[in-house]
Amino acid sequence: SQTIHQWPATLVQPVGSPLSLECTVEGTSNPNLYWYRQAAGRGLQLLFYSVGIGQISSEVPQNLSASRPQDRQFILSSKKLLLSDSGFYLCAWTVGGTDTQYFGPGTRLTVL
Amino acid sequence: GQQLNQSPQSMFIQEGEDVSMNCTSSSIFNTWLWYKQDPGEGPVLLIALYKAGELTSNGRLTAQFGITRKDSFLNISASIPSDVGIYFCAGPIATGNQFYFGTGTSLTVIP
Hints:
The complex is a heterodimer. Chain A is mostly beta strands. Chain A has strands spanning 3-7, 10-13, 19-26, 31-39, 42-52, 55-58, 64-70, 73-78, 87-95, 101-103, 107-111. Chain A is built from no helices and 11 strands. In chain A, the strands form 2 sheets. In chain A, strands 2, 4, 5, 6, 9, 10 and 11 form a 7-stranded mixed β-sheet that branches. Chain B contains no helices and 11 strands. In chain B, a hairpin with a 6-residue loop joins strand 9 (85-92) and strand 10 (99-102). Classes of the chains: A mainly beta, B mainly beta. Chain A binds chain B through residues 6, 32, 41-46, 49, 51, 57, 59, 88, 90, 94, 99-106, 108, and chain B through 1, 3, 30-31, 33, 35, 37, 39-45, 48, 50, 86, 88, 90-92, 97-99, 101, 103-104, 106.
């Protein structure tokens, strides 16, 4: 069966520090991968998605970036965090060509 | 991304009552997804619907894909305290790899 992992689960970072959040999927090949941000328990905002290694589509201009170095690995990064980057970050995946999306457990990021 | 119209926004019900929520769109969907999210956790897929008119159950949960393909309903029967959470509907955008999401229905079950 397929599983999706995210780490860390929680993170507290000072303003201006770098960020690296990691997402990995097991049990499937060539998934579409997604990063979302959720504020206040509502409203999923799509940040990035990827349909393959090295292929990243950005949906929202910001100081975040994403990379997909391996088929089942998706990384969310920032060189300098802002206060507004605080939130709940969710990784998700779909099998290419299907319409069913599954979410990871999320990372709670607090920028102080 | 674009939001689906989900209602009600919140519900406060007594344990044992039935719950109904719905999601509507101005566009036609080929798939409807329903998720539940507990505080501090990722959304968990409850039910996926793939055909207009389809009625699918998962335990006490039943969801329907509207005939017009522009709406979907989720019903929870005999609610229990662990049903508390936020329920989201979602559907894939026809022209790409992205998904629309509802704004969520917050459910509180009073014991």
